[in-house]
Input
Amino acid sequence: MITQSDLQQFYGTEQHYRYLNILITDGVKYLADEGECHWLLGIIASFHHQIKRNGRLYEFCLWQAERKGDGAIITARGDTNEPAFLEQHLDYAELTFNIKLYQCGKVVMLPSEY
Output
């Protein structure tokens, strides 16, 4: 398993990788592969069309995965202080720490890669 500090090594990205209907950066690929978080990318990809229809969210969307017991709460919002556009509760999720991801258009990235 990885830690949150493992993700801080990623600044910018060398390459974008296609994941269903979105693109992910080097850091997000590392998170998905090494942190076993492909399930989170599946959720983000499944809501991409709704975000695309909302011009402001398509420009910038903050995704958060917060641990809650054995599960997680996934939220998507336009910015930190805005109400959530989406809130999804998962009874079980392999999540060892809280995660923030940014989505700009089709590209999903770590905050350090923004």
The mean pLDDT is 94.
